[in-house]
Write a structure and sequence with these properties.
- The structure is a single chain.
- The strands form six sheets. A ten-stranded mixed beta sheet has the order 8-7-19-18-20-21-24-17-16-11. Strands 1, 2, 3, 4, 5 and 6 form a six-stranded mixed beta sheet that branches. A five-stranded mixed beta sheet has the order 26-25-27-28-29, sandwiched between helices.
- By secondary structure, it is α+β, with helices and mostly antiparallel strands.
- The model has no long low-confidence stretch (mean pLDDT 91).
- It is elongated and about 100 Å long.
- Helix 1 packs across helix 2, helix 6 crosses helix 11 and helix 9 packs across helix 10.
- It starts with a strand and ends in a 22-residue tail after the last helix.
- Helix content is 31%, strand content 28%.
Length: 599
Amino acid sequence: MLVIHSDWMEYDAVKPIGKIAEGDAASSGRMEENLTAFVTVEREDDDSTVSAALEELEGISEKVGVRRIMLYPYAHLSTRLAQPGRAVELLSGLETVLVDAGFEVHRSPFGWYKSFNLKAKGHPLAEWSREVTGGKTRDEIKERIESRYIVLFPDGREVELDPSKDEASSGDDELDAFIRSEYGTPPAEEPPSIKEMQRLELLDYETAGDPGHFIMYPKGSFMFKVLTEWAGSMARDLGAMEIDSPIMYDWESPDIRAQVSSFHERHYRVVTPEDKKLILRFAGDFGLFRMMKRATLSYRDLPVRMYEFSKSFRFEQRGELSGLRRLRAFHMPDIHSFARSEDEGWDEYAAIYDKYQAEIVRTGVPFAIAFRVVESFYSENRERLIELLKTSGRPAFVELLSDMSHYWAVKNEFQGIDSLGGNCQLATVQLDVVDAERYGIVYTDADGSEKGCTICHCSIGSIERWIYMVLENAIAQERPEFPMWIAPTQVRLIPLRDEFLGACEDLAAAIEGRVDIDDRDEKVGRRIRDAEREWIGMIIVYGEKEAAADRIPVRMRSGDIVEMTVDGINSRIAEATEGWPFVHGPLRQHLSRRFPFRG
């Protein structure tokens, strides 16, 4: 609420806003010597919020000595607007309790474009800003929402289950593992990727930093770059326009503060030397939505897809932190699609769902499919979910919610399954069917009217979690091995003696891939073992026989030795990396010139 002690306030209702316009309220009004209360009703608000608002207004009234109040619906104090019908209900409720408390009240109509004039008193107590929540936190809101659970199959069959009691038996091993981990007893062991990322010198904890923040060694930075380019290539394939926006935002900005409130104490606050309060972004919505609010959109411009890659921050609890699976600082590649209607939004949803699924399948990472969806929305759109599963050819876990607790009506999750059978959310596609006017993001339709967009919020998942899943998937194999497309070293050359070093350097130049040379003064057996401990997929020990032959014996990660020409090696690398980004090797080519980072 923004409350102003006024000499007078007057308004005229000029134009109704579609079907949400309230028709039985006064179309104009004026009040003198009054409090003007600009009020926004948010999704979490309920009767307890009305009571809290009454208490706040009574307190302000006592301080300025005024018992006359004009209630003025004002959507621009928040980005989390309630549904129009609910907003009118609570505004009417506030009007009633104020009248019952002895106030003279005038309420301007909801859902109209209005002109107004106001003269503020201008004394020290003339202006008040209040955020009234009725004591309801995000967790308390979620507690009121009931869930039931089903497994939905591509042929339309539904199987009800209680995931905390029933043994999952969907016929899909990854889906059963997800249900056991998410709702049963998750693995108690520490993910093995934590020790492996340190041993392999990929990523590590930074003891001088905040928990949940990591450093990347050269090989980890290399993997990060490959995955970042992969995420960016998806956005380009989908025709998304790339933007960039700040990572810090003004805590006092009403729309930012309202959005932050939904993440109840899960955000970082920063105070500048000028004592300005900022927060670190926890999602990609902040800057993009403010940018799109300023954009002039026509129905001809939609749908439009926007892409941003940026670091985000969430103050997860210490007990929740778990290596790269759950951390406080991470990099998110976000795509947001803005559509004209719910039908067009579904088309966008399906296109991005299919793209993400195809890319995840390409990685070879095991995953399950899950949906969270409001029950009423599911009833109306069940066939659309089934169509998505037909493209997947797999069943999905579906949580049916009694009401909305977020901005989305349906959310898809591609849940990665790690080496212990635990789950880790990767990609997500979320359909926001609440009128985007709550963000101020509107477009002009063919008839000249302004309408809110349907928004798809999408991400392939944080880069750190993808490194986690690549590691965990490698660990789950009998002989751990990085996929060729993301392996820091694809081929390791081991000269039998110093005299073969020059030939190895020539061979490295002829191989079209990431090749290094172990020229250390160590026994050959030791150098082979070290290459195997680094999970290198192709090892070549080079000596007299190799120098004299057309074909070179290549020791594969499987243990097999395959005779190959240089062209054959290049073909093997090209086939395994086709369609993946190429990034040059992260380290010096000669191992004799390398040094350990962890001691």
